[in-house]
Design a protein that fits this description.
The structure is a single chain. By secondary structure, the protein is an alpha+beta fold. The protein has a single domain (3-220), classed as Class II aldolase/adducin N-terminal domain (L-fuculose-1-phosphate Aldolase). The protein has seven helices and seven strands. It has helices at residues 3-19, 77-86, 99-106, 116-119, 134-155, 180-203, 212-220, and strands at residues 29-34, 39-42, 58-61, 66-68, 92-95, 165-168, 172-177. Strands 4-3-2-1-5-7-6 form a seven-stranded antiparallel beta sheet, sandwiched between helices. A hairpin with a 4-residue loop joins strand 1 and strand 2 (39-42). The longest helix has 24 residues, at 180-203.
């Protein structure tokens, strides 16, 4: 993929967040990595979506050095880089402050897997990290935000390829995928799942997570070697 193609893809992914009403003004960001070159393209910091264009997309290496830009990269760049460096099979990351998913994050709550809509895309409850400690906060906030996500996945022995989302406590959701487009797609799905989850728990506060047999059925009919959902071509 050429640099121009990478920038265009990341630009379109960021604009899709805006079209889907998951971000306003300068909220949120999307990135994508070219694993062969180690180049990451990400939204610039503090640029309104209605003023954003492909040339504004910032290129950095995996250490955060700016490669080609007149603008500063997103303030969340170090979080993205932390995840790219740890989760070697992801190609794109999206971060939003969407209403329902962020509400769960601010409440320090996981999003329970309550039904098959959730199970189709995320294998189990969507985790929420611990609240960041002062030590981590003042050490390197954005880098440590990525570390919070990694620590949560290690602690819960979660598979980042089956659970492509995490809520950062008091902050908001991050999603990832094979590229920027999938990361954004999962941000849209996550927000709808969070909305349905909120409504379900409003009706029945004592509802439990879906049974594992039903979770397995719905997740694996869409994912893995035995999947059969959709068309072969």
């Amino acid at each position: 993929m050429s640099i121009d193609e990478l920038k265009e893809k990341v630009y379109e992914a960021n604009m899709e967040l805006n079209r889907r009403n998951l971000v306003i003004y300068t909220f949120g960001n999307v990135s994508q990595i070219d694993r062969k070159s180690g180049v990451v393209a990400i939204k610039p910091s503090g640029v309104d979506y209605d003023k954003l264009n492909p040339d504004d997309i910032v290129l950095v290496d995996l250490q955060g050095n700016i490669i080609d830009s007149r603008l500063n990269p997103s303030s969340d760049t170090k979080t993205h880089l932390r995840l790219y460096n740890k989760f070697s099979q992801i190609g794109g990351i999206a971060h939003t402050h969407s209403k329902y998913a962020t509400s769960f994050a601010q409440a320090n709550l996981t999003i329970k897997c309550l039904g098959t809509t959730h199970a189709d895309y995320f294998y189990s409850d969507i985790p929420c990290t611990d609240v960041i400690s002062d030590e981590m906060l003042f050490k390197d906030y954005e880098d440590m935000t990525g570390e919070l996500i990694i620590d949560k996945f290690i602690k819960e022995e979660a598979d980042y390829l089956k659970m492509k989302a995490c809520l950062v406590a008091c902050h908001g959701p991050f999603t990832w995928g094979e590229d920027a487009s999938e990361a954004v797609f999962l941000s849209v799905v996550l927000e709808e799942i969070a909305r349905i989850n909120y409504l379900t728990q409003s009706l029945n506060p004592d509802i439990k997570s879906i049974k594992k047999t039903l979770l397995d059925k719905h997740y694996f009919r869409k994912h893995g070697d035995g999947s059969y959902y959709g068309q072969k071509d």
